[in-house]
Write a structure and sequence with these properties.
- The chain is 43% helix and 9% strand.
- The chain contains eleven helices and five strands.
- The protein has helices at 7-22, 24-31, 35-44, 68-80, 86-95, 102-112, 181-197, 227-235, 251-265, 273-288, 300-305, and strands at residues 139-145, 159-165, 171-176, 204-207, 238-241.
- Residues 131-308 form the Integrase catalytic domain.
Length: 308
């Protein structure tokens, strides 16, 4: 029983003390409770508030509960077949006259403790993060769907491609009307030139497993490289894929997209692809000159100059 005293328990305790001091009839008039109600709780009261707590109203038996013969049949079958699955166990019990549903069998077996104890779950220990040591060593790339409320034309669809250098946090953003391997390949060529103009040679790009980047999870084109992968090979860039369904492995670009949502998409509207590209370029310059904690409270542009 819980040690905490609820408001109802405190109320009943006050009623019991008043009835003990002035009588049941007077307590009934003061508290507007029937005499039978007071006598009911008075029989339970032992001087403590814990005795005035509501007890479980769950019935002790049920007309359709398992009989002792059925319970013995289940226990015997489980003892003889400890590794048998639930459905197969239920099927064998039916052959011996058992008429209950599988759900009922599961509940009674759980109540009787007939399931094997669950094994101890292995504690997840993440691998240590591989820190980058120079600009361009690895660049994270991802795609963001522009929120519909930011677009004035209801028929228009826009996408933001984002690239961020893991060492300097220097970002490159580009606007596209579609999310495809063609757009991804075009973005890869643009980011390669953009970083090269700043003296950074991109050696590796890291992406998720989307179809705009890879055919890794395609049923029919698994061995066919995408246009993005071909372009990466032509530019001499290594393409690294993160673990499936693990966006935290692309955490830097995911975090930067959250900042884009807060600083750009929450307060801007776009009218066309060209308008979106111009606004995105201004936002990209502003973000690259914004101080950050990882580079020692320097902006990515200031930090990258020290290594280029």
């Amino acid at each position: 029983m819980s040690k905490s005293i609820t408001q109802d328990m405190a109320y009943r305790q006050s009623l019991m003390k008043y009835a003990e001091k002035y009588g049941v009839s007077r307590a009934s008039r003061k508290y507007n409770k029937s005499r039978s109600y007071i006598y009911f709780w008075k029989a339970r009261w032992d001087g403590t508030a814990a005795s005035l707590a509501c007890r479980s109203r769950r019935p002790h038996s049920h007309p359709n509960q398992h009989t002792e013969a059925e319970l013995k049949l289940i226990r015997d079958m489980r003892r003889r077949n400890p590794n048998l699955g639930m459905v197969e166990l239920w099927h064998r019990l039916r052959q011996r006259g058992y008429t209950r549903r599988p759900e009922s069998l599961f509940r009674v077996m759980r109540k009787q403790g007939l399931f094997p104890p669950a094994g101890k779950k292995e504690i997840y220990r993440p691998k240590p993060y591989e820190q980058m040591t120079y600009p361009g060593q690895r660049v994270q790339v991802d795609v963001k769907i522009v929120p519909r409320r930011c677009i004035t034309d209801p028929e228009l669809r826009l996408y933001q491609y984002t690239a961020i250098d893991e060492f300097t946090r220097l970002r490159f953003l580009a606007a596209y009307p579609e999310q495809s391997t063609y757009s991804s390949a075009d973005f890869l060529r643009k980011l390669f030139k953009w970083y090269a103009r700043r003296g950074i040679r991109v050696e590796c790009v890291q992406t998720d497993n989307g179809f705009e980047f890879t055919n890794r999870f395609s049923n029919s084109r698994r061995d066919l490289p995408t246009l993005f992968e071909k372009t990466a090979g032509d530019l001499g860039i290594r393409h690294k894929l993160i673990h499936p369904y693990t966006p935290r492995h692309n955490g830097k670009v995911e975090r930067s997209r959250r900042e884009d949502q807060k600083r750009f998409y929450s307060c801007h509207s776009v009218f066309s692809l060209n308008d979106f590209a111009k606004q995105l370029a201004v936002h990209n310059r502003r973000s690259n000159n914004f101080p950050m904690r990882p580079p020692g409270w320097l902006s990515p542009s200031e930090f990258s100059v020290q290594y280029v």
